[in-house]
């Protein structure tokens, strides 16, 4: 067995770090928590490199380690930051909630969801994984993935409707400018 300083392991960790930081950032919503999560994940990857190397899909194996660490641990503080637009790198024109005006608004709504529902949506729309891949990552059935996604999307639509209603009410109640007279 090779040591944790195996050049192949070091090369993998270096290449995977940006991808894992993006995923962890989308999951945690906080750069510091994301860095901690990725650091914990990379420590596990280096310690268990022989298992990672033997995996059919190394990226899927490492992603599963990261997601399992995220779901199983209470890493979030009561007050957390919202992921900024800059933290999200991919265009999401195909999202089911296309009328959301900004990424920040989307992330704010996403953060209102329970942890597993949020994880399912991040893996589905951010990582572009199938239900089968998400089920494998979360060690659950595909039906569980679909039901969590359905509940999460219904909650997001409901929240979006509430946000839009509040915005319409606020704009309707805005004072009219004083006339120059």
Automatic annotation (TrEMBL):
One of its GO terms (molecular function) is sigma factor activity. It comes from the Bacteria. Residues 104-156 form the RNA polymerase sigma factor 70 region 4 type domain. GO terms for biological process: DNA-templated transcription initiation. Signal peptide: none annotated. Keywords: DNA-binding, Sigma factor, Transcription, Transcription regulation. Belongs to the sigma-70 factor family. ECF subfamily. This is RNA polymerase subunit sigma-24. The lineage of its organism: Bacteria, Bacillati, Actinomycetota, Actinomycetes, Micrococcales.
């Amino acid at each position: 067995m090779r040591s944790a300083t195996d050049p192949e392991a070091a090369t993998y960790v270096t290449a995977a770090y940006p991808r894992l930081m993006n995923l962890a950032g989308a999951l945690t919503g906080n750069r510091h928590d994301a860095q901690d999560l990725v650091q914990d994940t990379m420590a596990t990857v280096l310690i268990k490199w022989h298992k990672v190397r033997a995996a059919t899909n190394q990226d899927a194996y490492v992603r599963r380690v990261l997601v399992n660490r995220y779901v199983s641990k209470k890493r979030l503080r009561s007050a957390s930051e919202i992921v900024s637009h800059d933290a999200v790198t991919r265009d999401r024109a195909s999202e089911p909630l296309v009328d959301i005006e900004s990424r920040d608004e989307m992330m704010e709504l996403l953060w209102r969801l329970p942890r597993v529902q949020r994880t399912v949506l991040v893996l589905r729309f951010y990582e572009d994984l199938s239900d089968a891949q998400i089920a494998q990552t979360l060690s659950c059935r595909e039906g569980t993935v679909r039901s969590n996604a359905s509940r999460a999307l219904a909650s997001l639509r409901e929240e979006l409707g509430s946000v839009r209603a509040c915005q319409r009410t606020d704009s309707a109640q805005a004072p009219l400018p004083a006339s120059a007279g």
